[in-house]
Amino acid sequence: MDGALTGQRAVVVGGGSGIGLASARLLTRDGALVTIVGRTEQKLIDAAATLADEGLDVAHCVCDALDGGAVRDAVDVASDADRALQIAVVVPGGGNITPVLLFDDDGFSREVDNNVRPVFLFLKYAGRAMVRGGSGSFVAISSTASVFSTRYLASYAAGKAAVDQLVRVAADELGPLGVRVNSVQPGLTRTPTTEGMFRHGEMPAAFLAQQPIARHGEPDDIAQAVRYFAGPESSWVTGQLLTVDGGNTLRSFIDYASLIPVPDVRSIALGTEGESA
Question: Would you name the residues annotated as active-site residues?
Fold first, then answer.
């Protein structure tokens, strides 16, 4: 629907690459006035230049998505003169492959927070800007890790499950205020963050073996779902968690232990009982 977002103000967190950049591209093509946000200015500058080469103009703003003051300021930059905003997309997150019994005490909480806190902070401040403008659409990027067991990714899975539940509760609260809140749950998608997984000879094939649609996800696959939630096509949709994964969740997650070295939890537990990790 070309031009359906004309004049709408949008912020895309993590817009410097991957899913965020692809989302910014689609929103801008449809007329939104997009500000891409991230921690690394050069990455944002390069992303804006890439889009400019395609005839698309975006603004950028450096922001630590874990810092409330920085998030508030970034939302203000993306908003109009009346401090109103219509679209927010929040991508950042991540985790490490670690057996659940071997996480560092504080490290586990830190990884959960790295997935939940950016969504909460942008929901708080962008949501207020949407209420000021009378309506809006907030889209969080979650993961299929919130849907089924992803062994050795406990912190990531817990964080993304928290994101999805936050989305549902916020959608229930904010619907009467004109604000819709949804999430997209990608399967394995080819981005700069997942480059290491794609370089591993057997891992991409292991994912494909668990997917009815035998190809890997690309950023545009996820961006199309983001664009749907951001636009008028989904005006009667809120609190929904849309899985975009080639059908992976119809089957099961891969077994990392069959592909890469994973610590022997039993031997470690027997040898370090009573000690802190």
Answer: 156
